[in-house]
């Protein structure tokens, strides 16, 4: 199973970006998917997750700004990020799991928020 992120880049404070995670391989449509983010010197921080049934969860600190969704037909999950702030700057990783742990990872996509 492969996970490939896209949609990162530069954004302005107050702006929006949408990240995509495309999955491929056997059972990829049965994965629960999640987004994590990391900045230099920090551990990866959980952002949001969604099951293959569509049950979505966003960490409390980002609710209202970030939304996770998926399109099973496209084997994709999305992270819509609104009202972006400089401290949202990070490398964002898509992760997948079938079992209890997220053990499948993409390469990450960099998001930079600045004026």
Give the gist of this structure.
By secondary structure, the protein is mainly β. The protein has no helices and 11 strands.
Polypeptide structure, described:
- This protein has 115 residues and is mainly β.
- It has no helices and eleven strands.
- It has strands at residues 2-6, 9-11, 17-24, 32-38, 45-50, 56-58, 66-71, 76-81, 90-97, 104-105, 109-113.
- The strands form two sheets. Strands 2, 4, 5, 6, 9, 10 and 11 form a seven-stranded mixed beta sheet that branches. Strands 1-3-8-7 form a four-stranded antiparallel beta sheet, with no helix packed on it.
- A hairpin with a 6-residue loop joins β9 (90-97) and β10 (104-105).
Query: What is the number of helices?
Result: 0
Mean pLDDT: 95
The span between the termini is 37 Å
Based on Cα principal axes, name the global outline: globular
Rg (CA only) = 13 Å
Low-confidence stretches: none
Give the strand content: over 45%
Class by helix and strand content?
mainly beta
How many beta-strand segments?
11
From the structure above, extract its key features.
115 residues
Topology at a glance:
Layout: E1 2-6, E2 9-11, E3 17-24, E4 32-38, E5 45-50, E6 56-58, E7 66-71, E8 76-81, E9 90-97, E10 104-105, E11 109-113
Parallel strand pairs: 2-11
Antiparallel strand pairs: 1-3, 3-8, 4-5, 4-9, 5-6, 7-8, 9-10, 9-11
């Amino acid at each position: 199973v492969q996970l490939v992120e896209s949609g990162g880049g530069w954004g302005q404070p107050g702006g929006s970006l949408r990240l995509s995670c495309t999955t491929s391989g056997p059972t990829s449509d049965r994965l629960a998917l999640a987004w994590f983010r990391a900045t230099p010197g920090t551990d990866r921080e959980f952002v949001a997750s969604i099951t293959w049934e569509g049950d979505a969860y966003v960490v409390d600190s980002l609710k209202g700004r970030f939304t996770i969704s998926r399109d099973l037909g496209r084997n994709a999950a999305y992270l819509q990020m609104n009202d972006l702030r400089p401290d949202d700057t990070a490398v964002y990783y898509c992760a997948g799991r079938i079992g209890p742990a997220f053990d499948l990872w993409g390469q990450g996509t960099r998001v930079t928020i600045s004026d």
